[in-house]
Write a structure and sequence with these properties.
Blueprint: E1 14-20, H1 24-37, H2 47-50, H3 66-69, E2 78-84, H4 90-97, H5 102-107, H6 109-114, E3 118-119, H7 141-159, E4 161-168, H8 185-193, H9 201-211, E5 216-218, H10 228-236, E6 240-243, H11 250-263, E7 267-277, H12 280-284, H13 288-306, H14 312-315, E8 319-326, E9 333-343, E10 349-359, H15 360-380, E11 385-386, H16 409-423
Parallel strand pairs: 1-2, 1-4, 2-3, 4-5, 5-6, 6-11, 7-8
Antiparallel strand pairs: 7-9, 9-10
Helix pairs in contact: 1-4, 1-15, 7-8, 7-9, 8-10, 11-13
């Protein structure tokens, strides 16, 4: 029997995508969308554009594309804007990032040049190793938030957008824990007026988005929208949110391999991970405080998947280390190297070594596309607050208070597709159907 269908408003009109941080990830995303629209590339890595979803029993042979199953905004309806501390337009920023080939950028030069970043909200103490001139000045953080809200309103009106979504593609901020100013909306707003030092720039963007009724996704490991004040605001304004930290390279591999080890009850005694990369993200992560933010999300994955409290003999003594090194010659072509010490029958040791020569922005771009389209879908379906079904895309998924995050990528994908089935009134797939044999 089918479930009752959620009422989803149609995806009519333009969808504006607002991005804090017009760097390598954002320009690769925007250029990629423009190339795909012109038939000059394929959106490889995007579930919304390339994946199918099984409906009903296997014997029914119903597997439409996700893009045909749920009412998503079309690529031709997307409009892009954003903020950055540098004044370069998206074409200049993409050229400097050196992710895509120059002939590809030249093919979409006009729309990239039209994307000029608005002045950013920025504090040097939160991102210590970079600085730029394109920065807002205000009497206090509340005034800066109001400036962002004016930017949001002006962008929507100027571009004739019916709806908006915001996704953080900025640098990793220094490690911070939640304080009293983050515990309630009243405390946060009082803190904005007083320019409280514990309110990060990313939190000001999230606040401005949610106050403006704009869905927000956090693509970095910062403490941003995962605080009580902003979660309350998201529920109050009926706005969906998700995060945090795009799951692209090394952690993506861990969420593939670790579930397999546990499924076969193979032990893991050590997992050493190191990375070299030379883009702006690598430069920012040279600062120990920014690296600490990233390290926490990277380290948390294995502990949740392997559940050492349930399987102490197999995983209790696991030694897990993560390193990131800035190496300018590599640019955006990151190398993630893993040495994994496992053990099997009678505790006999074995090793696995992985050298993942990946492109961070190439892996992140389809994630950005899927998240903005799914957040817009969630908003049109009347969903609000944390969208746990989007955990599939993050290293540190947000969850409701009291729930642990699910990191197993296969469980995450099942949850995502079941949410889409539920939304459209289709039966959930539980893999519990009876099998008959002759």
């Amino acid at each position: 029997m089918s479930a009752s269908r959620t009422t989803v408003a149609p995806a009519e009109g333009k969808l504006g995508i607002l991005i804090p941080g017009i760097g390598a990830v954002a320009t690769t995303f925007v250029a990629g969308v423009e190339l795909v629209k012109r038939g000059m590339g394929q959106p490889v890595g995007s579930l919304t554009q390339m994946a199918t979803i099984r409906l009903g029993k296997r014997t029914e042979n119903r597997s439409p594309y996700i893009r045909d199953f749920v009412p998503l905004a079309g690529l031709n309806d997307l409009v892009f804007g954003g903020w950055d501390i540098y004044e370069d337009n998206a074409y200049q920023a993409a050229t400097n990032a050196r992710v895509l080939e120059q002939h590809q950028l030249d093919a979409v030069r006009e729309p990239l040049q039209a994307l000029r970043p608005m002045k950013a909200v920025f504090e040097q103490q939160y991102v210590k190793r970079i600085n730029g001139p394109n920065v807002k000045k205000g009497a206090n953080k509340r005034e800066l938030a109001e400036m962002l809200m004016d930017d949001i309103k002006s962008f929507k009106e100027k571009n004739g957008c019916a709806r908006l979504a915001m996704i953080w593609c900025g640098s990793t901020e220094v490690h911070r824990k939640a304080t009293a100013v983050h515990q309630s909306l009243a405390a946060l707003e009082d803190g904005l007026a007083k320019s409280d030092v514990d309110i990060a720039p990313s939190q000001i963007y999230a606040y401005a988005a949610l106050k403006s009724g704009v869905p927000f996704a956090n693509g970095a490991p910062n403490l941003t929208n995962d605080i009580p004040a902003l979660l309350d605001l998201a529920r109050e304004r009926h706005v969906p949110v998700c995060g945090k930290d795009f799951k692209t390279g090394q952690t993506f591999m861990k969420t593939l391999l670790a579930p397999g080890f546990k499924a076969r009850m193979l032990g893991v005694s050590g997992w050493f991970s190191t990375n070299i990369l030379g883009n702006r993200d690598g430069e920012v992560l040279e600062d120990p405080d920014s690296f600490k933010t990233k390290e926490e999300t990277k380290l948390s994955v294995l502990d949740q998947i392997l559940q050492p409290q349930l399987y102490p003999h197999l995983y209790k003594d696991l030694y897990h280390s993560v390193k990131i090194n800035y190496y300018p010659p590599r640019g955006d072509a990151k190398e993630g190297w893993d040495n994994i010490d496992i053990f099997g029958w009678l505790n006999y040791p074995m090793q696995i070594k992985i050298d993942f020569l990946c492109r961070d922005s190439i892996l992140a771009a389809p994630i950005v596309l899927d998240l903005v389209l799914f957040l817009d879908l969630a908003a049109r379906a009347g969903q609000r607050g944390i969208q746990e079904w989007l955990s599939f895309y993050f290293k540190g998924p947000m969850t409701a208070p009291g729930l642990y995050p699910e990191h197993d990528i296969f469980i995450q994908l099942m949850k995502l597709k079941n949410r889409l089935r539920h939304m459209m009134g289709e039966e959930l797939i539980t893999h519990l159907g009876l099998e008959y044999y002759d």
